[in-house]
Structure formats: structure tokens, C-alpha cells
Amino acid sequence: MARFPRGSSAPHLLYSFFNSSKSTRPSPHSPTSALLLGNFHLRQFSSSAVRAKDDKEPWWKESMEHLRNIGISAHIDSGKTTLTERILYYTGRIHEIHEVRGRDGVGAKMDSMDLEREKGITIQSAATYCTWNGYQVNIIDTPGHVDFTIEVERALRVLDGAILVLCSVGGVQSQSITVDRQMRRYEVPRVAFINKLDRMGADPWKVLSQARAKLRHHSAAVQVPIGLEEDFQGLIDLVQMKAFYFRGSSGENVVAEDIPEDMAAFVEAKRRELIETVSDVDDKLADAFLADEPISASDLEEAIRRATIARKFIPVFMGSAFKNKGVQPLLNGVLNYLPCPIEVNNYALDQTKDEEKVMLGGNPEGPLVALAFKLEEGRFGQLTYLRIYEGVIRKGDFVVNINTGKRIKVPRLVRMHSDEMEDIQEAHAGQIVAVFGMDCASGDTFTDGSVKYTMTSMNVPEPVMSLAVQPVSKDSGGQFSKALNRFQREDPTFRVGLDPESGQTIISGMGELHLDIYVERIRREYKVDATVGKPRVNFRETITQRAEFDYLHKKQSGGQGQYGRVTGYVEPIPLGEGSKFEFENMIVGQAIPSNFIPAIEKGFKEAANSGSLIGHPVENLRIVLTDGASHAVDSSELAFKLAAIYAFRQLYTAAKPVILEPVMLVELKVPSEFQGTVAGDINKCVRSILSLTPHFFAFFLLPQVPLNNMFGYSTSLRSMTQVRQRFF
Ligand SMILES: Nc1nc2c(ncn2[C@@H]2O[C@H](COP(=O)(O)OP(=O)(O)OP(=O)(O)O)[C@@H](O)[C@H]2O)c(=O)[nH]1
Fold first, then answer.
1. For residue 697, which of 100, 452, 532, 659 sits 20 to 30 Å off, Cα-Cα?
2. Does ipTM exceed 0.95?
């Protein structure tokens, strides 16, 4: 589910408050040899050829070129974990394939948490690494549910490339849109993988055109499937112009054959489409194409690589992870088309030079710069995931947390393989590793102390839902607080607060599932049974127009009086422009002594914590202080703070406040016979229906529904459809 704006509804406008260059260096590789794996010709790039090109290239460049940091992201149930399981199997990281919700009850490697295995969903992103064809590939498998979207955010923040998995039946689904938006936000080059070609109704060409239309992808297929659904047999590679079949009990023998004759014309047309699409964004290929020159496999491959890394093109792969078809070519695609760490421009902010942007070149001989992007409480203390952008980190080294100024020793350094870890002595730029026992917060930057750089942090969406939670037994209060503290540290979208009226603990998060999972984890991992209140939507308030204020707070009731006058205006910050509260002091001269200004800002901030419409926080506003007055004796911080609070109350109505509420993009798949009932019912509580697509004996409905109307909806939908609906 994604969030979209909600339209107006007098008297208060209601809309969503959730707004929530890379280099195009030509491929360093020139294909110089072919490696036979099974019967499958993989392109192998000779490193000696790379070296021969330029003797002055640094020693570490080659190992960087043989490194890929990728994420696998998609809509719920598209097959991310199943795909990762195959990748780990073919690369020799695991020796047996276990299915998500498989009959053997073992579960996939990357879903290591008990709850994940029971529910068959990914809750936490998991990191692993493998080696393919001489390249090290670090992989992060992310959850599909919007409730765990922070896991996608932090993974994409630190990855160099991504696989966007799409279901060949479901096509571009609600969460595919969200994930794709996240990939854009972090400027992550990507390849698409249309999975589940074995399923009834699989239509990769429809999915491709949906991706072009709905995701505005400039994309083309680099493969053509041989057969579909039950008859799905293999894939034709449009670059190599070969047919590949996946033989053996787990598809491990990839056999290359000639293209079936009856598919030759179709394949030619699709290759031409691929060349034309890449030529649109790659001048070198366009020149050859327009001159009608023959285009070799390596020319085309290099052009695809350039265009993909420049984020101008998305190559589309296909297959069926579950039926073990198409995974090895996708892995080759990752090596061939996604960037290595030094092909991605990463920047840090130099804190000694007013946050000047500094480009990090990925040099392991440079000063250490590493970003802590994820925390986890492990058996041995806090486990911190780090992406190293420059320099080397060694076990036993002292590093400095630039955000806190603390100098910390690195007691233990590990590489993660889902929930297993391997101790290592050192890791260099480009790598993703984890450290134990280093106290920090998510988003902190570590250096060796010689530079004061910080990396920009990730986008953290605001929680949309809250509920009261209380331990059943008073004795378990300690464990309960421990659990809440831990989860809050690990997950920036999980917040804990107190209801000022009832004194109850309120937990807030990204949805019902998110909060349910934490309540369940409190029960399982901390043995605390908790009673849970009714979920509440986190509404917000905002203003819609500029308003002036001029408030004098004056009190003379014996003793020292209070005197403070504040003058200025407030204006809305457009939704989606990042900042939620801004305060600017534009006073010229000393109308208000500068030591009182922070108190004024504090007063406005405090007042904005609770809008007068429904008492929810007021966001997206800029307060500008232009003038004021003070008294030599009676002015104080308190007087100015109170003046700001009263000024806010005075201006609020004039600024035409409105209420904001979270709106979800919901995806429903309902059997056709219930179309009328369900569409009629949902119309009552939605703002709009984005699409209604028939699909065999069912139809897909994509309505935008205020979150507040969603509580209990799955139950009512279930009864309307006699338990035959799908609801994410
Ligand atoms: N028919 C078919 N089923 C598949 C394929 N890939 C995955 N599945 C099934 O789809 C379901 C979801 O697969 P997962 O791998 O858990 O999907 P996911 O995207 O990781 O799921 P979340 O992380 O929970 O969003 C499982 O039952 C898989 O067995 C495929 O290629 N074909």
C-alpha cells in the first residue's frame, strides 16, 4: 500500500500529510573470455585486460569492480525471498532450497525470524553475500509490506543497485509503485525481474507495458520467454541471441541452444525494440543503429550497462524463481548491468566546512567513512550494520561517531549471512558489514577521526497509527520497557509515548500489521502478555494560508512582571517539501535581545504540538519573526515563550487550518461475481478508485482509502466475498 493525497471535504480540506548522478563511466570490462558453467556460457571479464588498459589504476580498483551491493525489493509476495533462496543456492552459499511456507517447515534462509517463517512474510531486511562468476555480491532482501517500509528505505540508502521484482500475473501493484519511488529517491539503478512466469495468467508483456505506463520506466525486455504458464520452458537472451534452458532437479544446469525456429521473427522484433529503446538514451548505440551498422552482443551489452547505470534505462529480465528458471541469467545481469561501488557518486557533508558536499571516491586508502544504517539487538549486544564508503575498518580500531563525538573501539567485526555471522578482521570501502558493541543510533556516521564527515540520512516516514498497550501483569513492567526501548532504537518508524490523560503507553507505527508484530514480539521474546487498545489514526493539522501575528504578553501582578512582544507571520510549507516546522528570525536590530530568540522558537514549537482543530500536531509551517519589543526588567525567556504560544493561538484560525489524514492505496483482488457488491461498498468510503482491471475470473481494484476507514475492512470484505478476496 502506498499513500496518496486525499481530496477536499468542507469545511476542512483533508489531504495526506505523508510525503512522505551517478557516473556513466563506460564499463571497465571488455568481454575477453567465456566461462562454461553447467552448459551455460557466462560472460567473464578478464581483470588483466582491465589492468592493461591503465597501469596507473590503483590496486583496489579491480576488487571494487568485482563487487556488487544490491537490494531485492517488490510488492508483497512477488517472490523476493524465493528468488534470494535460489541465488544463494546457485552461488553455493546454501546447499538445499527451502521454500517460503514450504511443507518441510524449514522456511527460506533469509526469513530467519520465527514469525517470518510462520507467517510466510519478510518482516526485517536480511543481508547476505555470495560469489558469482568471480564477483562478490552483497544482497539485502527487503520486506514487501508497507508496514515495514523503513527496511526498504535503509537498504536502498546504502545499496548501489537493485532488482525490482514484479509478478507476471499481478503486474505493477501498489507496493511496486512505492518501492520504485524509493529507488528513485535514492537514485538507485535497477533491473526489473518479472517473476512467476509459470503461473496461470502470466503475461510479461502486459507487465512491461504497465511498468512503462505506471512507473514511467524507460525499459525493454532483454529476454523473451519460451512458453508461458505450465509450458514455461526457458528464456531467449536478446543480447547473446541464444536460448537457455534450466535443467537438473533444481535448474542448476543451464543449457544454451539455438533459438527455436518458430520464435525467430518474434525474437528479432524484440531485439530491435531493445536496441531502439536503449538508443533513445545512449548516443553511441544510437549512432550505430542509425547508421544501420551491425550491433554486436558486446556493443549492446555495454550500451545497456551505460544506460542502466545512468538510470536512463531499466533492463527487464524474466523467469520463475519457484520453478528454478531464469535466476542465473538475472545474476549475470546484476554483474553486467548494475554498478560497482565506484561507479556510484556518494557524497558526505563536511562538518568543518559548513556542511560542504564532499564526493567519496570509494578509496580504501582514504580516511574511513562508514554509515550505520541498521541496528539490531543480538545475543552479543547491539549489532550495527555499516556501509563503508571510504577507508578500511579493522577489528580493534578506534573510530569516531561524528554525530555524537564519541570515540569507540571496534570490538568485533562480522559479515552477515541472514542470521549467521562470520567474524572478519577488516573490511574496506564498498563493503557492507556489521559490528558488535558499538553504541550509536541509526544514521550515525563513523570515521577514523581524521575527517568530520557525515552521510545524509535516510527518509523516515511518519507513523500513521497508534494504539495503547499495557502489560497484563505489573511485575513484567521492566521487561516491557526493555522491549519497547529496544524496538524503538532498532526501528525509527516505531515510536513510544505516553497518553497525557490516561497515562497509558502508546505505541505508534506504520500500520496494524507493524504494531501487531511488535506486540507479538514483546510476548514471545520478552514473555510479556500485553493488553492492546483500539488502533487510532495519527491525524495531523496544517495551515493553508499566510497569517500575520503581533502579540504582546504583559503581566504585572507584583514582583517581577512578564513582558514580551512578538511580531511576524506564518506561512505554509508545501506538503512534500521535507521540513515540517521552520522558524526564521528576520529581526534587524535589537528589538528582541538575541538570547530570547530560542525561547520564542521553543514557544512556537510547543504550541504547534497540538492544533486547536482536533488537538493533533500542526505540521508544514514556517514561522518568521520580523519584529517585537522587550522590557529591560520584565522580559524573560518565559515571557517570550508565552508570547509565542499565545501568538500561535491568535494566528491559527487566520491561517485557515485543516486536518490531514493518512490515505492508503489499497489493492484488492476479488472474484468477478462480487464486483458489484465490493465496488459499491468500497465507493462509500474511498476518495477515488484509481483502476479497476478485469483479470480472468477476477478483477483488481485500486482504491485510495483513508486509513481511518480501513479498520475492520478485511473482515467485512471477507464476508462480502465469502472469504474469497485478497487484501494487502
Ligand atoms: N508459482 C510461483 N510461485 C512463486 C514464485 N516465486 C515465489 N512464489 C511463491 O509466492 C509466495 C511468496 O513468495 P516470497 O518469496 O515469500 O515473496 P516475497 O516477495 O519475499 O514476500 P514478502 O517479503 O512477504 O513480501 C510463496 O508462496 C512462493 O512460493 C514463482 O516464480 N512462481
1. 100
2. yes
